[in-house]
Design brief:
2 helices; rod-shaped
Length: 141
Amino acid sequence: MFGMGFTEILIIAVIAVLFLGPDKLPSAMIDIAKFFRQMKKTVGNVKDTLEEEMNVSEIKQEALAYKKELLDASEQVSKAVDVKSQVGGHLSDLSADILDDDFDDEPQEQKKKKKEPKKAKEEKVTFKKKEKPVKEDDIDV
């Protein structure tokens, strides 16, 4: 115990008997035993508490690792969704270009002119009656 041999324990016992006397020695030994028992319980409680804290810190680290993995996965999913919308837009542009080409040899300027909206003919507003065109069926010969 505490790296002491038998002779050292015997010397301590003799000194204790001399100082305490035979009357107080048994109660002093009981108090010393209670003290060592209490110290042992306290050390055990401290060990348990440290082990629990270590376990809690490990659980926190694992939870943070899972959280990081989930955030990375959600970022990848959002990128995949964005790529889908971007590719969809590009595909619609490509399909419009393919449909517009029609494999003809018209110059690009003429194609642009075709795409421009035509202006409506200007008409004058009058209160005169318009003449109807004469059909061949209406003519009597």
